[in-house]
Amino acid sequence: MNELIGSAVFWVLSLLIIGTALGVVMSKNLVHSALLLTACFIGVGMLYITLEADFLGAVEFMTYSGGVAVLIVMGVMLTHKGEGIPSNPFNGRELLAAALAVIFAAVMGLVLNFVQLPASDGFSSADTVGDLADMMLNTYILPFEIAAVLLLAALLGAIILAKGDGEA
Amino acid sequence: MHNGILYLAGESLKEMLLPVIGSELIVNLIVTLLCIVILFLLVATSALVFTLGERKVCAWIQVRIGPNRVGPWGLLQSTADMLKLLTKEDIIPQGIDRWLWVLSPILIFIPAAMVYALYPFDDGVIFADVNIGLFLLIAISSQSVLPFLMGGYASNSKYAMLGGMRTVAQMLSYEVPMVISLMGIIMLTGSLKMSAIVEAQREIWFIFLQPIAFFIFLVTALVEGNRPPFNMVEGESEIIAGPFTEYTGMRWALFFLAEFANLLSMGILTATLFLGGWQGPDFLPTQLWFWIKAFLMVLVYQWIGWTFPRTRMDTILSFGWKVLLPLALVNLLLTGFGIYIFKWLL
């Protein structure tokens, strides 16, 4: 019974994720694309939650939805052409895109076929947050701090780019 | 063992149903569905109560009488309002983005109603007492930014678009100090679980241990809930009604259903995080304490809202980033030191 429900949820979520992801690239309207992207992220977040990585799922909801809201605002402001609706620029590079897609599919296929993926032993931690915090702030504190400094630099860079040299 | 009234009622209902139906799975399913129905009724009732309550409180604060024509003491005002909204013409403006326009008022209701699943109403009475409770709650309620922006963009109106842009600016900016101020509570509790946060306040409420966080939360909750004096998103005197400008009838009512659900949410959340949740002296049942605290906080939010004039968009943004965020960070630092000093003293 549980197996059945689990796989049903997985297939429904996969359809949602793939469908919305296709919508993101095929929609001619930039805002629609961005909103479908949110739907896609929410699907991915729910997939994480069904895999009992609930914290990661909530992070997915929180950061990406907010990020997409900013993306839409920027998108509308940057691509608005006078009276028309904001549009996704399409360029005629279907061949290149198709080639890249084939290569990507081939690589993924090879990975799935030949790489031994570490199987979960079915054990999932009850306290996902605590273990994650322990790893981030004790075991891997140095990479964590390096990423933080990198993000800070990006933040400052964005402010200087937006405000101009003189004002910042 | 839990001993909240609703928890005991639910358990005895399960015991009564089990011999009749037989399968435990189906009984659990029925009880779960019943809980969902109760939560939705709660949200709907809050809208019914607040359509009258909001106007009455507003009137009292401004020394007016308020609605007093429909029924005794204006009690049937909500019913009259509902009938009026139902009979209004559903105007669909030209040149809108049809799908987004229709979806926006529906989607805005989902996060507003979903967070109710995470509130501990009484001892053991919480629909989903998950491990990451508080964080999931913030993650879900942050989803309400996009429907506002959707409605604002889809309406194809400058006022609506401005309102949508304002939503993004103010809600995303104030999320940062809110989360950082709540971090102090999480550090004191040592858990994100909502029931654990209530449990940790058995000795002393967090409002006494985290006064700065309480102040920051009060302000940020008003901004996040789009309440006056920070309802820049609607800003009637500037941009008509922001994202709701082009909506009529029931579609418009859906926005307000979400807004009133959010108002009750703010009261419940403040009571749970800072005022000890359902806990209180023994002479009243815990369930009653919970609602007293929650409605008292709602009253405080209304009081603030109807007392102060509306702020300006640029001042509230700079206040959020330049005052509240540093204050929240200082509070985080102080809490960290405080915990160490407390441990050292023991």
Could you explain how this protein is built, in words?
The complex is a heterodimer of chains A (168) and B (346). Chain A has helices at residues 2-26, 30-50, 54-79, 94-114, 128-139, 141-163. Chain A folds into two domains: 1-89, NADH-ubiquinone/plastoquinone oxidoreductase chain 6, subunit NuoJ (Four Helix Bundle (Hemerythrin (Met), subunit A)), CATH 1.20.120; 125-168. The longest helix of chain A is centred in the middle third of the chain and has 26 residues, at 54-79. By secondary structure, chain A is mostly helical. Chain B has 346 residues and is mainly alpha-helical. Chain B has one domain (93-345). Chain B has 14 helices and no strands. Chain B has helices spanning 5-21, 24-61, 77-87, 98-114, 133-141, 145-154, 158-189, 194-199, 206-209, 211-224, 236-239, 249-274, 286-307, 313-345. In chain B, helix 2 runs parallel beside helix 13 and helix 7 (158-189) packs parallel to helix 14 (313-345). The two termini of chain B are 30 Å apart. The chains are: A mainly alpha (168), B mainly alpha (346). Chain A binds chain B through residues 1, 29, 31-32, 35, 38, 42, 54-55, 58-59, 61-62, 65-66, 68-70, 72-73, 76, 85, 126-129, and chain B through 25, 97, 100, 130-132, 135-136, 138-140, 142-143, 145-146, 149-150, 153, 165, 168, 172, 175, 192.
Summarize the structure.
The complex is a heterodimer of chains A (168) and B (346). Chain A is mostly helical and 168 residues long. Chain A is 76% helix and 0% strand.
CATH architecture of the largest domain in chain A: Up-down Bundle
The residue ranges of chain B in which pLDDT falls below 50 over 5 or more consecutive positions are: none
From the helix content, strand content and strand pairing of chain A, which structural class follows? Answer: mainly alpha
Quaternary state of this entry equals heterodimer
As for the number of domains of chain B, it is 1
EC number (chain A): 7.1.1.-
Protein name (chain A): NADH-quinone oxidoreductase subunit J
GO molecular function, one term (chain A): quinone binding
Keywords (chain A): Cell membrane, Membrane, NAD, Quinone, Transmembrane, Transmembrane helix
